[in-house]
Specification:
about 250 residues; alpha+beta; Jelly Rolls; 4-stranded antiparallel beta sheet; globular; binds 2-oxoglutaric acid
């Protein structure tokens, strides 16, 4: 039973069809780039052997700090392969994001020091993550998520308090018609959450072994079932000032 979205779909036992095109949520970007296969394979291999293989865990958090003193703006303290990944992402995304968003994710070398978290999540087929907004008091704006090993559908739901308040871009007094979007994230794709997408929408992954996705690259063909494989995601987030101090008062 895959009717996970709402009563209308479940009435007919029809699964919701996920889109391949990025939903119109302000601040959400999934550019049409893919990490090179060789780099992606190398990162998966390092993550598996360093953190996951034989250890029975599915999540790792790592921390780094940017430093203008040492000209390291990606987050020194993170393992080298993650610094390399950040450099490659900065290059790949340069022409695919608004300049201000790119600058928020990859600050210039002389920018004030910041603390950066990398969270590694490992999902076996059928596993997911509950819908959530990343902690408001711990993480700043500008989140990067990279998918490795398998695609999956990520669902975005408008947080309840915003449902009645949002209006069309034309300024008309009407709520935007959709409060949920399901997007198929391809393996080696990169997701950016900023602004509205980061603060006013939850993101989550339903736990199921396969996804029902609109067909073809352009999404015009017949919908198809796509089996999930083992998926690794790497998410980079900025810690808010003070949120990097272990044992201090909760920020
Ligand atoms: O696996 C993903 O892409 C999402 C991860 C996530 O949302 C989280 O760790 O908070």
């Amino acid at each position: 039973m895959y009717a996970v979205n709402d009563a209308v779909d479940s009435l007919f036992d029809e699964p919701q069809i996920a889109m391949r095109t990025v939903p119109p949520i302000p601040g959400l970007f999934v550019p049409s780039i893919r990490l090179p296969l060789e780099l992606a394979n190398d990162i998966v291999q390092q993550c598996m052997s360093l953190y996951f293989d034989g250890r029975g865990i599915n999540q790792i958090m790592l921390f780094g700090r940017t430093s203008s003193e040492h000209g390291e703006n990606m987050g020194s303290g993170l393992p080298t392969f993650l610094i390399t990944l950040l450099h490659r992402l900065a290059d790949l995304l340069r022409d695919h994001l608004p300049e201000q968003v790119h600058g928020m994710l990859f600050p210039p070398k002389d920018a004030p020091q910041r603390a950066r978290q990398a969270i590694l999540n490992l999902y076996h087929p059928g596993e997911g993550i509950s819908p959530h907004v990343d902690l408001l008091k711990r993480f700043d704006d500008g989140i990067i998520g990279v998918s490795f090993g398998s695609g999956c559908v990520m669902s975005f739901e408008r947080v309840k308090s915003q449902e009645a308040m949002l209006f069309g871009e034309d300024g008309e007094d009407r709520p935007l018609d959709r409060n949920r979007w399901d997007l198929y994230l391809e393996e080696r794709s990169v997701l950016i959450l900023s602004e509205d997408a980061r603060y006013n929408w939850t993101h989550g992954i339903d736990g199921r072994p396969e996804d029902f996705v609109s067909g073809g690259i352009d999404g015009q063909g017949e919908p198809e079932w796509i089996e999930r494989g083992t998926r690794l995601s790497i998410t980079f987030r900025w810690l808010l000032p003070g949120a990097d101090i272990v044992g201090g008062p909760d920020p």
